Amino acid sequence: MSNKVVINADVTKGTINKNIYGHFAEHLGRCIYEGIWVGEDSNIPNTNGIRNDVVEALKNINIPVLRWPGGCFADEYHWKDGIGPRENRKRMVNTHWGGVIENNHFGTHEFMMLCDMLETEPYICGNVGSGTVQEMSEWVEYMTFDGESPMANLRIENGREEPWPLTYFGVGNENWGCGGNMRPQYYADLYRRFQTYVRNYGDNKIYRIAGGPNIDDYNWTEVLMREAHHLMDGLSLHYYTIPGDFWLGKGSATNFPEDEWDITMQKAYHIKELIEKHSTIMDKYDPEKRVALIIDEWGTWFDVEEGTNPGFLYQQNTIRDALVAGVSLNIFNDHNDRVQMTNIAQTVNVLQAVVLTDKEKMILTPTYHVFEMYKVHQDAEKLALDIQSAVKKISDKEIPQVTASASKAKDGTINITLCNIDKDNEAEVNIDLRGANLSDVNARVLTANELDAHNTFDNPDNVKPVNYTDFQVNGTELSLKLPAKSVVAISIK
Ligand code: AHR
């Protein structure tokens, strides 16, 4: 069957918040240490301790917002351990992630420096699980108060005169699990209490994000919205794509049986149902959609690479991950009325990373290339799009073979991104682009022959986007053949 897409170039459906393209970096495995922070004395080229190659790569995908310091780590993190002269900083055990020593060399000042280098907005996650209201309140004062106060004075003593602008602040992480094993009513009360002391100093206005549900815990959303929606700007949601079982074996990132391709696609597509069902509950308490759904952890989660520390969550990244990213981002764009931020887990060397490092070497993953191809949607106007796609039946679920997203940039360029999740068959697509002039069309494709095609330190360009010319223009119609397992980005000037 040929797949049909109708896009109306004159009908816009709100802005696609650039923060949908956000990232997440935790003190976990080799994400922060080695992946981002190598220290000033390292032989790896760095600026004030931060790797130059990684900064350059990340700048190229316009990371709009970066969540830190966790994850589960956030509810064990005591920010005062990570300020002041590095040689005096407390050494602690990272109990969640591998039981390794955390020397606190990467703390608040280093994170803010990284954000400056990346020209990205910080999103700080505070400690509810093992922290105090005072500790959280003082962190915000330390970062954002411009004047005479104990915490502002301490910041100045530590070398930073000006406060940092800080918008996004999360009040705890996974408080139903590693963040304190709480019940929703209890967390809702704690949220109300903690957020009271997350102050707006001067002109700095904090956007408060409450710890939200795990996957399909709709009761958590119900209770949080009922008890605290008026005190929050966003509610988080965490969902990982895991082909196997979380505890019994998630499945290999590379050497997987063919049917795991389909299962992975079906599980990735499940995020659509989760967004819609959580949004329906949110609509009940917030019909104006003032409170955003913030999907601040998503992505693939596979078994760790053989021979690596199981607590470091290091996995390879293949064309399958690229399809998961492409399908997910199309879904997020499509729900831009409620979804205002998402953060893929995690930026470097952990889970569905965009960048992998090995000592002084660095490679870009297929997922990186999807973020690069899709960056044109950031802060663009979403265009009305209807799609009739062939469906694939996977176990008892039906999912579309083709997903798509279209937006209009400020300069008038129309950008369309398409994914064909079918691992064996190409997809014929006819796009009727009403109201557009198709005289200047360019396209790129990301695809591969093998299901687990990936980049390695010896072969870093095995999977990368190339020009794509397999399309025909006829009036306002664009006909194309999407190769099996491909992500295509089309730009129309
Ligand atoms: O991203 C890895 C972990 O997954 C995070 O620390 C936690 O929030 C989630 O369970």
Structural overview:
- Helix 3 crosses helix 4.
- This protein has about 500 residues and is an alpha/beta fold.
- The relative contact order is 0.15.
- The protein has 9 helices and 26 strands.
- The strands form 6 sheets. A 10-stranded mixed β-sheet has the order 23-22-26-20-19-16-1-21-25-24, covered by helices on one side.
- Helix content is about 25%, strand content about 30%.
- The site of alpha-L-arabinofuranose has 10 residues, from loops.
Features:
ASD1_cat, 493 residues, EC 3.2.1.55, binds alpha-L-arabinofuranose, glycosidase, 23% helix, alpha/beta, ten-stranded mixed β-sheet, globular, hydrolase, eight-stranded parallel beta barrel
Give the strand order, joined by hyphens, for the main sheet: 23-22-26-20-19-16-1-21-25-24
- State the oligomer: single chain
Beta-strand fraction estimate: 25-35%
The total count of strands amounts to: 26
**Overall helicity:** 10-25%
What does the overall shape look like? Answer: globular
Class from secondary-structure proportions: alpha/beta
Ligand kinds = alpha-L-arabinofuranose
Residue windows where pLDDT falls under 50 for at least 5 positions: none
| Rounded average pLDDT | 97
How much is the radius of gyration in Å? 22 Å
Sheet with most strands = 10 strands, mixed
For the record, give the distance between the C-alpha atoms at the N and C termini, rounded to a whole number. 29 Å
Protein name: non-reducing end alpha-L-arabinofuranosidase
Family: Belongs to the glycosyl hydrolase 51 family.
Domain Alpha-L-arabinofuranosidase C-terminal: 296-486
Subunit structure: Homohexamer; trimer of dimers.
